[in-house]
UniProtKB/TrEMBL annotation:
Taxonomic lineage from the root: Bacteria, Pseudomonadati, Pseudomonadota, Betaproteobacteria, Burkholderiales
Keyword ATP-binding: yes
Keyword rRNA-binding (UniProt): no
Cross-referenced InterPro entries: AAA+_ATPase, ABC_AA/LPS_Transport, ABC_transporter-like_ATP-bd, P-loop_NTPase
Residues in ABC transporter domain copies: 2-245
CDD domains in UniProt: ABC_Mj1267_LivG_branched (cd03219)
Descriptive protein name: Arginine transport ATP-binding protein ArtM
Length: 251
């Protein structure tokens, strides 16, 4: 399981994430919600290693990841999709995915060996490209894809890495109405694997209601609510947070 223990980061005098302790179990999808500036993406960055914590710990299956960088955490089993796409823009769709498949297989990048000889890994890459509905665009450079397809490609790369923990930061942001169901279906399929843990930052509450087994709420960098979706969404503390009012302790 994934754990954060007193996770904190300060930027100058500003505490962006303030002592957040939480445990995320396999077989669950946890939505992380809160108003703009609540610290959701910063919390993601602390977990995945994009930024270093001022205090606190991140553990995965008992292994302390706190001192590791983002690449080392990926190898340990944390998979992160970003709010802004992170792709190799000049490589094709298939090339982006096959590099991730190759990395997962521990092959490394061998410029002297022809990829077509590695049929098993290339076949796996094609399967994943088809799963995200990009088979007809597998030879298109990533930079030439519309935004929605770039988001689908990023999910494909994440799938190719086969992490223990999938982290999605607003996966449907900027997508067309037609593209959203494809990404949501992919997340549903990943959720069916009860050995995987999924974290989802999402502003669209209809998406949260549909996918989440659990919701945690951040406000001003602090964890202010944690529980089943219906209960958390209906709670006064969450209603006030989304209205932008100060969150006070319940009387």
């Amino acid at each position: 399981m994934l754990q954060t223990e007193g996770l904190t980061v300060r930027f100058g005098g500003h505490v962006a994430v303030d002592g957040v302790s939480c445990t995320f179990a396999p077989g669950t999808l946890t939505a992380i919600v809160g108003p703009n500036g609540a610290g959701k993406t910063t919390y993601f960055n602390l977990i995945s290693g994009q930024i270093r914590a001022t205090a606190g710990r991140v553990r995965l299956n008992g292994q302390d990841l706190t001192g590791l960088g983002a690449a080392e955490r990926t190898r340990a089993g944390l998979g992160r999709a970003f709010q802004l796409t992170q792709l190799f823009p000049r490589l094709t769709v298939l090339e982006n995915v096959r590099l991730a498949v190759q990395a997962r297989a521990g092959e490394g990048l061998n410029l002297w060996q022809i990829w077509s000889d590695r049929r098993e890994l290339l076949g796996r890459a094609r399967e994943i490209v088809a799963a995200v509905a990009l088979a007809d665009k597998q030879d298109v450079p990533a930079a030439a894809l519309p935004h929605g397809d770039q988001r689908k490609l990023e999910v494909a790369i994440l799938m190719a890495l086969e992490p223990q923990v999938f982290m999605f930061d607003e996966p449907t942001a900027g997508m067309s109405v037609d593209d959203v169901p494809v990404v949501l279906n992919l997340i549903r399929a990943l959720k069916a694997d009860k050995t995987k843990t999924i974290l989802l930052v999402e502003h669209k509450m209809d998406v949260v209601r549909e996918l989440a087994d659990r919701i945690i709420v951040l406000h001003n960098g602090q964890l202010v609510a944690d529980g089943e979706p219906e209960t958390v969404i209906a709670s006064p503390v969450v209603q006030r947070a989304y209205l932008g009012q100060d969150v006070e302790a319940e009387a």
